TrEMBL record, chains A, B, C, D:
<comment type="pathway">
    <text>Amino-acid biosynthesis; ergothioneine biosynthesis.</text>
</comment>
<dbReference type="InterPro" id="IPR042095">
    <property type="entry name" value="SUMF_sf"/>
</dbReference>
<keyword id="KW-0560">Oxidoreductase</keyword>
<dbReference type="GO" id="GO:0052699">
    <property type="term" value="P:ergothioneine biosynthetic process"/>
</dbReference>
<dbReference type="Pfam" id="PF03781">
    <property type="entry name" value="FGE-sulfatase"/>
</dbReference>
<keyword id="KW-0408">Iron</keyword>
<protein>
    <submittedName>
        <fullName>Ergothioneine biosynthesis protein EgtB</fullName>
    </submittedName>
</protein>
<dbReference type="InterPro" id="IPR051043">
    <property type="entry name" value="Sulfatase_Mod_Factor_Kinase"/>
</dbReference>
<dbReference type="InterPro" id="IPR017806">
    <property type="entry name" value="EgtB"/>
</dbReference>
<feature type="domain" description="Sulfatase-modifying factor enzyme-like">
    <location>
        <begin position="337"/>
        <end position="410"/>
    </location>
</feature>
<dbReference type="InterPro" id="IPR034660">
    <property type="entry name" value="DinB/YfiT-like"/>
</dbReference>
<dbReference type="InterPro" id="IPR005532">
    <property type="entry name" value="SUMF_dom"/>
</dbReference>
<feature type="domain" description="DinB-like">
    <location>
        <begin position="11"/>
        <end position="139"/>
    </location>
</feature>
<feature type="domain" description="Sulfatase-modifying factor enzyme-like">
    <location>
        <begin position="181"/>
        <end position="305"/>
    </location>
</feature>
<dbReference type="Pfam" id="PF12867">
    <property type="entry name" value="DinB_2"/>
</dbReference>
<dbReference type="InterPro" id="IPR024775">
    <property type="entry name" value="DinB-like"/>
</dbReference>
<dbReference type="InterPro" id="IPR016187">
    <property type="entry name" value="CTDL_fold"/>
</dbReference>
Amino acid sequence: MEPIEALDARYARVRDATMALCATLTPEDTVAQSMPDASPAKWHLAHTTWFFEKFVLCRDPGYAPMHADWHYLFNSYYQSAGPMHARPQRGLITRPSLLEVVDFRRHVDACMRERLQAGVDEDTAAIVVIGLHHEQQHQELLLTDIKHLFACNPLLPAYAELPEPPRGRARPQRFLRGREGLVETGAPAHGFAYDNERPRHRELLHPHAIAQRPVSNAEFIEFIRDGGYRTPTLWMSEGWDTVQREGWNRPLYWSEDLDSAFTLGGLRALDPHAPVAHVSYFEADAFARWAGARLPTEAEWEVLAADRDPGQGNLRDRGLLQPCAAPDDADEDAPLQLFGDVWEWTSSPYVSYPGFRPLPGTLGEYNGKFMCGQWVLRGGSCVTPGDHIRASYRNFFYPASRWQFSGIRLGRDA
Amino acid sequence: MEPIEALDARYARVRDATMALCATLTPEDTVAQSMPDASPAKWHLAHTTWFFEKFVLCRDPGYAPMHADWHYLFNSYYQSAGPMHARPQRGLITRPSLLEVVDFRRHVDACMRERLQAGVDEDTAAIVVIGLHHEQQHQELLLTDIKHLFACNPLLPAYAELPEPPRGRARPQRFLRGREGLVETGAPAHGFAYDNERPRHRELLHPHAIAQRPVSNAEFIEFIRDGGYRTPTLWMSEGWDTVQREGWNRPLYWSEDLDSAFTLGGLRALDPHAPVAHVSYFEADAFARWAGARLPTEAEWEVLAADRDPGQGNLRDRGLLQPCAAPDDADEDAPLQLFGDVWEWTSSPYVSYPGFRPLPGTLGEYNGKFMCGQWVLRGGSCVTPGDHIRASYRNFFYPASRWQFSGIRLGRDA
Amino acid sequence: MEPIEALDARYARVRDATMALCATLTPEDTVAQSMPDASPAKWHLAHTTWFFEKFVLCRDPGYAPMHADWHYLFNSYYQSAGPMHARPQRGLITRPSLLEVVDFRRHVDACMRERLQAGVDEDTAAIVVIGLHHEQQHQELLLTDIKHLFACNPLLPAYAELPEPPRGRARPQRFLRGREGLVETGAPAHGFAYDNERPRHRELLHPHAIAQRPVSNAEFIEFIRDGGYRTPTLWMSEGWDTVQREGWNRPLYWSEDLDSAFTLGGLRALDPHAPVAHVSYFEADAFARWAGARLPTEAEWEVLAADRDPGQGNLRDRGLLQPCAAPDDADEDAPLQLFGDVWEWTSSPYVSYPGFRPLPGTLGEYNGKFMCGQWVLRGGSCVTPGDHIRASYRNFFYPASRWQFSGIRLGRDA
Amino acid sequence: MEPIEALDARYARVRDATMALCATLTPEDTVAQSMPDASPAKWHLAHTTWFFEKFVLCRDPGYAPMHADWHYLFNSYYQSAGPMHARPQRGLITRPSLLEVVDFRRHVDACMRERLQAGVDEDTAAIVVIGLHHEQQHQELLLTDIKHLFACNPLLPAYAELPEPPRGRARPQRFLRGREGLVETGAPAHGFAYDNERPRHRELLHPHAIAQRPVSNAEFIEFIRDGGYRTPTLWMSEGWDTVQREGWNRPLYWSEDLDSAFTLGGLRALDPHAPVAHVSYFEADAFARWAGARLPTEAEWEVLAADRDPGQGNLRDRGLLQPCAAPDDADEDAPLQLFGDVWEWTSSPYVSYPGFRPLPGTLGEYNGKFMCGQWVLRGGSCVTPGDHIRASYRNFFYPASRWQFSGIRLGRDA
Ligand SMILES: [Fe+3]
Ligand SMILES: [Fe+3]
Ligand SMILES: [Fe+3]
Ligand SMILES: [Fe+3]
């Protein structure tokens, strides 16, 4: 566990970052929920604060919750922490107002600071660290949820004035041979990781290769022009049903003419060299089939990424908030853009590792109960906080989800 | 038509009243939509303004709309005025912000003032008058929609600090014999009325009587305790389906113990003497059957109300925003509370009068196209603006609607 | 009440007619339910029999129901007669088999014959008469439900080999001036009529005219070609929603090229002179608006039809089971095709007459509880039994219903 | 590939078995579809025949399909074989009648016999073999679909008069240590297997143990009585949502008092010693968590079953059509009931094996496109044909499916 000093400072840094993300939002922007999967920004602000009040401050029996009746509103899904408001109704919670929620944050932050400065035991420190990672996850969601909300507005407002991303060239695609045989994956026993990354365990890798870089917009346009969205045999059965039912014919946020896309900076020309984003697992899988390839497994991905530095990626800290092509000066044989830009769909259903043990108590509900029907994504995206990603990190979404910055890296048998 | 002077002042008064209704709301409160039937307060503010910009200011070809791209957002249902945003998505329009909408109001109000002070032709004046009545309708909806929204919030916030309504006693119920034979109903050709109140025409009234006052909460509790909600033979077939599907067992906003109800002033004890409110046509009709009575027809109601003064009712101007029992000092034989307190469901489906002509042009869509599947209510409610009700006024809602201040007055054959 | 002898014979005739309608059906055809509004033929056979067992035979406390456990299955909607199977599940009741149901019919018929021959009291006789009218209503439904079912089958099987209907010419349309002022409508106190046709009462008719004949297919095609289905201002708001949601662009059962239509005799060329059928109220109303007319009220219709002979119409007994143009030899000023061919939508919502009293007991549920949200149709159709129609007969369906032989007769103010 | 002679005989045997399963059904029983997941028996009869006509007979360009227009009706999901009728509408296809479908079977069988007796090439023979396995799969579905249909009928008809199953005693539960390390699973390259069982490949097994026998009804009742269905922390998040939404509180087909269950032989007392059946993955997984165990992976299961004889199981050929306890005389350390009784949910999502290649052509749609969102079950059930199961056989269903004979075998880490 990290030293208490650091924890205090880190707490402040992470919490402040969340507030900073809201700087360009009006109070109105923070209250609306554009679909059941997304949450209002105000809800994110309150829920992440509830997490600290409920799981840290309330450990002290002397602590009186600031607003006990808010716990019902801002508990997300922790059944063992008490009943909760129905998720699809989050957009109707106009009260507490944004100001009241900000006050709540201040109050909890003050209590937390005091607590952290007084020194906390190891268990508590561990929960604080989880709470900060939790907060960072919600930071990413806050951005993707706002993007979705703004895309529902015919005025297409920009979240912020963003710099134009550098317009590099996507290299010609290559496949890099992966390691095979018995390997180890998962997070080591020490250091922070979510319970779903553990235990570190042996995996058997079959001979395979992985693409050097993610699929680009230009390549995805080829798939579209080749009739990809009209060819049922390229698709999972359920994917094809979704294509038909939803009328999908391009990635989410793209204009009909395939020339531009809605971004956090507003509507912008589509960069053919940038990695394609906002595709579902169904689209990633169909694209791979069309390309004569497949998606990599999560173990193949992790082994490839294991000794790369996540910090080099186009993550949120770079401030682009949009995927872009990798710079051209990289090592010819190195995998590119494993971290940042887009989360990469893998061919692995999200299930537990052998020997998986959920966290004890309520936090055991954090991850384990979602191990059904979702697929693993790896590597973080352009809106992932820079210190929130690692090779063993497992993100997961339903196969029809498209509102995350989710993209495609190909793999194949070798 | 009214003199231009008066129109100017009246315009200012009505428009200001709308803003005044929002004084206690946060920006967040104004953006959320709690169900497809309801609209956000911000949307009401913008839509009523769009009405004047579109139907009055834009008559001048030299007028440039302040925000041409907002017309799509704030057109409600006028197909001939252009395409419009889907009604159930109104809660996602966080931009324009409340401040921008208020600016829009100011801008349009300034232009309107100028226009009205310069003098307008009769046609224009007529549209302005319609626009003001339209605005007043939305004032009522703004309140009922906010009430619904706040009732969806587990914190049950109050819209405003409201005075306790006077706690009068409901008189013992009596039935007053109505006029019979050929009568005239509908608005006269001159003076303001909606197109659906015209033409004035002959109706044949059969022998009947009408209750002196609306059904009280105490009487409705009797119905509940007698198993009213569990007795299918009291209900229209579709009403019974609704009872089953929705699990109805009391009026909207009542607490389960039948002791209190959510009001615009927050949760309050239920006054047994006050008229029951927030019941659907289905409930009104079932109650009437249980009571061995029926609902009055709209013609019966109108003839009874024709020479009464609407201004005496518990309308919005009284500031209670809640129904209450009539004062005890009234004439023994006079009908009570015809105006104000609660809209009274009639047994009349909402259809056109013989010889009905919709307004010319786009405003022809105001009323006529809704004459299907809805039922007429009469008399206004405790949130109806004082000068917005008259004996010939026809309100209409679907038979399952309960979020309006809708109540019951009994009738019977005689 | 009719003499017992006649009742006996009439019972046999009506009951046999139902069986005769099933002669061309396979057992499989009799079990399927193509939508919640329709019922399987086998269900019709059993339900009409249940009606006699439950409401006539079971009046004798000594009578033991043949299959007491079938009552749950074949009660349609009589809440006071006990619980019932959910309507949309009728197609899953493969047992009892068709043969068992036919046996049930035989058993009940034998008991009924014995009972009728022994002589029944007046009350019982009245219920038997209702039961026979009820059976005839179901005969019509059986045919419209089978038509709907077969139209859902890509093989488009014919119900029967039917004669080609005579191909007359539709006369040029004319409007006939109607009676005005105070009139009487509704069924007289004596003779059979449903409770909803009573009491006979005074109505006030405003000056009006009614079209001599129903709208023809050719005229409806004009409406289509003129963009009728693409012009929102022609439609009720709810009708337009339905058009959009369902993708309506022509009457039910018509081929896309407007050249042919599915009939009980299979797919056939569309006769431009025949009355248009299988249109909803929404379409009838939109057509009327397009034509600068309106639909007649039910009172206007009834007064016009009051002294015409229903038996002249193209009713089921003629065996065409399809609407066709009227013969050319009719009186120039006489209204044509009031009875038979197509049920004619009126502008009257289906509500009770002044002074309406439902039948006592369970049969009070027959009609009254459906007086909400439906519209009155008049005159019977080409599948209505010849002795089952009269001027005062009120049929009723929801405004979006199209699977009945429902058509359009225009009216207008005069 | 098997010799042509045998194929001829085998074809006859398998095809006749399908017909034999329908002996107790009325024509009405064969037409109804009780839910989108299930199909009518008549559809099964026709679809399996279509399979041979389309994929075998039509390979001969000289062959004229008996009913070319039936291909649309009886293609299930092979997009590359042409368009198809919507799955949820299968119950409306009353024509062709059962007799016509039986005729179709006879015709195709005669052609097939001729073809097989004349001798077919290896490719054709391979497709015939697939067609026979396909037919056997549909035999199982025919029984589970009929069971579901009959359970929807309040009369609860029995599919057949079935013998009472032997009432053995379930042994005290034990866990058997499994093999660990590198193993091989999947079907060998030769002999029949579906494409999804291949290629045979290496898997890494972690230390584990597997229960000797499936979970019994008595054990599942314990789970219920202990509040299993009311304890959210036992469930996958989506499973808990399903429990709430569907009101699940016991396995499908059980009576509310947990004393009896609907079987193909009608309603019968529940045998506490028999394996629990008709539970979903969600229930299997929750039960395992409650029991402090987990479900085995499919590889763990397959390795355990690899050298067992499927023929000893309670499969369809035994004629019980109901799970029952294993006989008591078995080897103390041998796993019991791996084959037959109930399909056993595993913890393995249904995905492709490393190096998976779908069959070429249209039959490539047989399995691969369903590898999303489903879970693997192993071992066959009491309605699986005796020669249709093997250790490598992978069945798969959605996690909420309960209408198959699906049960639970526990596993755990060791
Ligand atoms: Fe969270
Ligand atoms: Fe409006
Ligand atoms: Fe009936
Ligand atoms: Fe199949």
